[in-house]
Each structure stands twice: as C-alpha cells, then as structure tokens.
Amino acid sequence: KQEVTQIPAALSVPEGENLVLNCSFTDSAIYNLQWFRQDPGKGLTSLLLIQSSQREQTSGRLNASLDKSSGRSTLYIAASQPGDSATYLCAVSRWGTSYDKVIFGPGTSLSVIP
Amino acid sequence: DAGITQSPRYKITETGRQVTLMCHQTWSHSYMFWYRQDLGHGLRLIYYSAAADITDKGEVPDGYVVSRSKTENFPLTLESATRSQTSVYFCASSLEHTQYFGPGTRLTVL
Known about the structure:
The complex is a heterodimer of chains A (114) and B (110). In chain A, strand 7 and strand 8 (72-77) form a beta hairpin. Chain A has no helices and eleven strands. Chain A is mostly beta strands. Chain B has strands at residues 4-7, 10-13, 19-25, 31-38, 42-51, 54-57, 64-66, 76-78, 87-95, 98-101, 105-109. Classes of the chains: A mainly beta (114), B mainly beta (110). At the A-B interface, strand 4, strand 5 and strand 9 of A face strand 5 and strand 10 of B.
C-alpha cells in the first residue's frame, strides 16, 4: 500500500531564506508527483507536476525534484516571502490505463516571518 | 473564468438526512474527483469520474453516491449522513494529470 509522508510537519523561517520541503513515498511505481499549496480555509492550488520520467520541474522561485528509486521528492523555495506561508502537500498518483488512487501526504505547514 | 465552484460552502445537517454537495466546472475537463480532508487523515479520494456517465470508487466510497449526467457537473450525495462524515469536501477536475481544486464545502453532521 502506498504511503506518503512529509517532513517536517511544520517549518518557520525568516523572510529571504531558502528552504526545502520533503516528500517520501513507499512505492516507486508512480505515474507522477504533484506539489500543491493550500491556504487556510481554501482549496488546493497546483504548483508543479513531475512525470515519472522527469527529474525536476521549475516554476519561478520553486523547484521540485523527483528520485523514484529512493522514493523521494523535494520542493525547493528560493528567497522565501511572507506570501509563501501556507501548507504544502505532495501527492503521488498511479494512473496506468485508468485513474487509480491518488495518495496525498499530510502536508508541511510553512510560516515565513517578515 | 470561474473554474470549479462548489455549493454550498458551508452546511450543517443532522444524522440520517440526505445531503447533496454540488460541483460545477467551466473547463470541460474529462476527469472529476471528490475528496474529503480530515485532521489526521489528510486528503482521501472518495469517487472519481473519467467522463459523463462513468464513475468509479476511490479510497473511501462507503456512504456516498455520485452521478455525472453532464461533463460539467459532479454532485456528491450522502444518502444518510453520519457524524463520521463531518469533514471538508473538495471537488477537483483534471487536465493532463494536473488537478485543479474547488474551494471546498465544510459539512457538519450533528
């Protein structure tokens, strides 16, 4: 059974700092991995999607990497800003010919202190 | 461009009542999903749909019913609500495996 964990559960950093969020999964047979952010009381916003054949994806100050063999993904946030404060979730999926389970991690709550 | 809307945003009901949560998307994405989010369990997939009239169970389907007569709508019905179904419910749609989420419905079952 696929299990997804995220470390740390919570993180507080001063503004401007670079930071890394971690996502681990137990079954390497994934189709893709997606990073989301969730603001309090809101839905999830997709940040980056990495296909299983890819090693990393970049969008602005965000860079996500994927290492299927070790079952790990990292989300790197450069020059953090207070507006980055949110909960960040990773999700692994295994589609194949039809949608299978999408398993979400529990999230990392990030606070960027001005 | 509204994207995905959910209604109602907040709902309080009583045990045993039927409740329907609505989800509407404006993009005509083929795939749609229902999740519930609970402290300690994270997000869990309830049902998903690959197209109109095609639905399938996710991880926690018991106690829920879905239908999809039109591509843009994917209602979720709790036929006889239980306290354990108190949760925040999210609808999502998918384009090329990127998922787009609605704002959620907070449901409380008394």
